[in-house]
Every structure is written in structure tokens, then in C-alpha cells.
Amino acid sequence: MKKLFLFCSLAIIALFLSFRTAVGQEPTMPQFPSRMIWNGAKHCAFTDVIQFKGKLYCTFRESSVGHIPGKKTGEGDGVVRVLSSPDGEKWDSVALLERKTFDLRDAKLSETPDGRLMVLMGGSVYVDQKLVKRIVQVSFSDENGQNFSAPTNVEIDPAIRSDLDWLWRVTWHNGVGYGVIYQPITSDWKIFLVKTTDGVHYQNVTQLDVPGLPNEATVRFAPTGEMQILVRREGGDRGAYFGTAKAPFTDWTFVNCGTSLGGPNFIYLPDGRILAGGRVNGRTGIGFLEKDGHFKLFSILPSAGDNSYPGFTIRDGKLYVTYYSSHEGNTAIYLSVIPLEELK
User: Fold this and answer.
1) Which among 6, 59, 183, 337 would be 20 to 30 A from 218, CA to CA?
2) What's the half-sphere exposure (Cβ side, CA atoms, 13 Å) at 219?
3) Overall pTM > 0.85
4) In a domain? residue 27
């Protein structure tokens, strides 16, 4: 009887493990290490990374309180820090961007056509911990990436401007920067594709027909010249939408990726595949966008709790991924360096 009980128990365990494997849980996935590169404040979050003038740059939000500022005006308002590193090992702070009464967050990096770093930031104003207004902010570096201007207001096309605009990321192509503004102001959130030539003034291109409370979006340009957009959704099945359009970028085709991605980002690998990432089932995941647009999870990076918002860049045959996580205590900034051959 004892042998039979033991045999049945082992069979149940084996069945459970096979089920985990069947649904794609971690035991079947490649595992990649990461290391903390910054934890200088109680809440460090929402990262991005870029290469500029031979160095790596990483940016993120810091707060002494958390996601939402404190009850007193200015208490715990977010500031944006910028780090640089020659090799991804040693990181130094090169800028701390702040603006009184604004909660700065979700900083995104890009290189302008005239050879400067641009830091785009959400600028939120809170009263008694309630969001009352949002004005997108921008800062520019000098040509060496050492000195950054004070954050200033971004100017949005009056035809679409609201009190809660959030321009989440800008990507430059042929001298023009493109990004997606989302407006969570009605029961049916709106998103607009906009463009700029100076990083400050943005003109409406078109409204994007994405249902289900669309919000954070990353714009990229495929090697073929097509624009592609990955959009987070908070409504319906919450599956991210992936869209493609040819110039002038007003006629879009979107597909449902089948997976919710918080803090969505993607990058084109040298072999032509699209690697994407974000918060997947509560943790920071990376995977591939297949030809039909569906997201296939490849790996979960060390993360838990408050986490995600990955930044991607490729350097010397390696994928550099920055993200934030609270799996070791307070939220901190992490870096994972993955050889490209291990992504096959």
C-alpha cells in the first residue's frame, strides 16, 4: 500500500511538472542573469537604455515615496536620473532632471538628428495624491552627453491637445521624430501618432484605431522602411496590439499579440527577428513577435512585484536589457546582458 501511495504521489508530481512545461512555465525557458546597477532611492523605476558617443546611457525615475507622490505638495515627486557607462559594468550619474511641482516619470532616450541625447518624460501634477494635469517634458544634452538642459514643456498640436497628454516614446527616422500620444480622459481612450522635427513641437499625423483603452506605445522603423507600433491595452482581453504602415503612416493594420505587455518595447535583431518585452503575467519577460504578430514568450528575467519597463540596445553582439524590479526589496534598476547567439 505504501509503495502504491508513493507511486501515485510521484505520478501526480510528474503530471504537474509536465503541465507546467506544457503551458510554457519557467523550467522550459532559457534563464539569463541580471545585476543591480542602481538603487539610490526608495522607488527607482521605468527604464530606457541607448548607445551614444561610444557609451551606454540608462535613464529612469526616482522617488522617495513611490509610484504616487505624497500628500504634501512636492513630497516624493519623481525626478529623472541619467547614468552613463563605457562598458555596462561601471555606471556613473551624469544628470538628475527635476522640475518643481511636476512628477517626472517614464523617461525615454533618443538621439536627435543634430547629435544630442533627448530625454522625453511624462510630467504629472498631483494635488492631494490625485492627478489633475499632465504636460509632457523634454530635456536635451550637449553634443558630448555630459550636460542636460532643464526640463521644459512639449508643445502638442492644438487640434488634439488635452490636459492629460502622455507622449511615451519618440523614435527618429530621416530627420523626423515619431511617437504616440495617449489620452486617458474618457471611457474610450484615444491615441494619436504625432511627429516632430525639433523634439519640442509635435504635429498630429493620424488617430490610431486601437480599441480597449490603448496607452503606452513604442514606435520603430523596420529595415524595409515600414513604421511599426507596439501598443499596450488595458481593456478587453488586454492583449497588446502590433501595427504596421507605410508612409505617410496614415493607413494602419493592427493585430492582437495575444499577450498583455506592460511597458512595451521592441527591437529588430540582426537576423531580422523582432524581440519584444514588457510585464508578462506580473514579471519582466522577453520574447518574439512572430510573422502573424503574436507574441511568443522566450524568457522571464529575474523579477517580481513592482517591475518591468525594459530598455533594449544591441552592442558588440550582445543584447543589453535594462528594467526595474522589487524582487530584492525596494524597487531598483537591473541590467541583463544576453549574447545574441543565446536568443536563437
Assistant:
1) 337
2) 28
3) yes
4) no
